[in-house]
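Blinded run. Sample ID left blank on purpose so nobody reads anything into the name before looking at the predicted structure. Input follows.
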Amino acid sequence: MDRDRLHFLLRRLHSLSGIVPIGAYLLLHIFLENSFVLGGRERFDLLVQAIAQVPTAVLLATEVLLLWAPILFHGLYGLVILRSADVGNAIHYDYTNSYLYVLQRVTGVIAFLFIGFHVTSTRLAYYFAGTEITYEFMHSYLVQPLWFAVYTIGVISAVFHFCNGIWTSCVTWGITIGAAAQRGMQLASVALFVVMSFTSMAILVAFR
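Blinded prediction complete.
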């Protein structure tokens, strides 16, 4: 396989992995897991206890294969793409899509670093140090202004990268053909970004 063909396939896989499984899990993580805290600390801790019933080996294998490996690939190959991205030139054009082009890459780096920190301090701490990711655990982080700011920037960056990525992926894969279809998908992506961001901020505040 020649280099250009390999690069084409890797970019397609990179685009796809950002939607499934990473984006799908982000939706699950916000709306069907962490949203439990909106019902109170007891309700969130009940979810934690339910997840703890899954055999550790099964849970770890599932996370490694279906989540951590795709995130690692998406993040690392994203950095490869970033090396050839014309970010400096894009910011000189006063077009919405130019700004989105830059933000997609900036938020990708921020999200990758944040996810690395989040996984290390929560999931790896759970598996290798026996740390229970309870309400009190998250509260101990988010009650501190600095960590609240870190989580806010990290989560909003991840949400933006995903939502804007839906639009760019639809263009890349030829799902939205024509200006009207692309504009409609872009508006839908913006609406999803607003809903996910609002819900995420409500969750972070609830942990405080």
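Unblinding after everyone has recorded impressions. The mean pLDDT is 93.
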